[in-house]
Amino acid sequence: MARLVPVLLIHGFNGAPGDWTDGGFRQYLLGHGDLDAGLVRLFQYGAAADGTYNNRGDLRQIASRLAGAGLDDAEQMSCSVERLSADSVARGGPAQVTLIAHSLGGIISRYYLSRRTPDEFGTAYSGKVGRLITIGAPHRGADLARLARLAPRYSPIWFVIRVLERLGVAPALPAKAIKEWEASLDQQQLAARAALAPEAATPQNRVALTDSPIYQQIAPDSPVLAALNRAGTMPAHVRCHTFYGDIRVRLRLLSHQGGTALLDHTTSFGDLVVPTTSARAIPGARATPHAYVTEQRIDYTQGTFLLTRDGATPAPAGRSLAGRLPATSHCELLSNPAVHTGVLAALGPD
Fold first, then answer.
1. In whole angstroms, how large is the CA radius of gyration of the chain?
2. Which long-range contacts (CB under 8 A, 24 or more apart) does 198-203 make?
3. N or C: which end of the chain has fewer CB within 10 A?
4. Half-sphere exposure of 276 toward its Cβ, with a 13 Å CA cutoff?
5. Can you give the pTM of this predicted structure?
6. How far apart are CA 336 and CA 287, in angstroms?
7. What tens digit of pLDDT does each residue of 320-338 get?
8. Is 113 a residue whose pLDDT tops 50?
9. Distance set, CA 185 to CA 28, 132, 149, 320 (Å)
10. What is the pLDDT of residues 278-329, one digit of tens each?
11. For residues 198 and 331, is the Cβ–Cβ distance under 8 A?
12. Average pLDDT, the chain
């Protein structure tokens, strides 16, 4: 007999319910967790005013669907926490629902959980959620217009690089070479953002993207996030887990191949969209973090970059990071087998 575990899968910004099946996520839960398929449902954002799928609308209005506000019976079936809870109980299962949410879905879930009384959209928490699992959610915000740097200009690490270079200690103009690597890394990050929102692929369109309600609501200085991140907002009875990618690049400047490291610096690029500092913890709540860390070490010596990965012998890497970063980027987390396994374990035996 299948396990009766009521689960609602909530996709992210610019996504669709099919995100949970395209990478095999829902299929993995059903097959390896022996879950009842009728209780593992795909949340739908509904229609926007222009009739298109509302995956870029006001997150507070989208959250009202979790409360079942204004929905017909068919929509209640796919979206309402209360309906899923009742259906679980009717089959002999638990009343408490698990929300599994990717990216923006995590913020939508938290907004729903925060509502003690109905807002203007009718969003109010019913008390029927026992567990929240977020995957790459920007709990402290994300800025799609700002790219992480291997060695940010005017930072202490950049100052050290230039000093070593000017003293003639560091080999063969590392500052110039690092700029070339960063140009390639910019393209890698833009590609990850373009998978989330095509507008993010070019600077001029990244500016236009800031006009959308969702972008403003997930910005690090958003009033919506500020309200969510106040102490006491998350219901104490909800058990929380955060899953996130942490792509790290470790840069070493060597006096010569196999020689002393003049500089040893590691930079985290998060999942190329959401920083680890934003995704790994839920402010004001106790959450179990699940990091998916991958690291590449780049040794720079005598004008050459050597790339080391997974303990392999360093090999000439050229001056491009494109295609070399591991598959833990934001939009790939839902198809990552390690994440599937981790989330299923977080569901537990109950």
1. 22
2. 200/144, 200/145, 203/145
3. N
4. 15
5. 0.88
6. 21
7. 444 555 679 998 999 999 9
8. yes
9. 32, 33, 8, 7
10. 999 999 999 999 999 988 787 777 666 665 654 555 555 444 444 555 679 9
11. no
12. 85
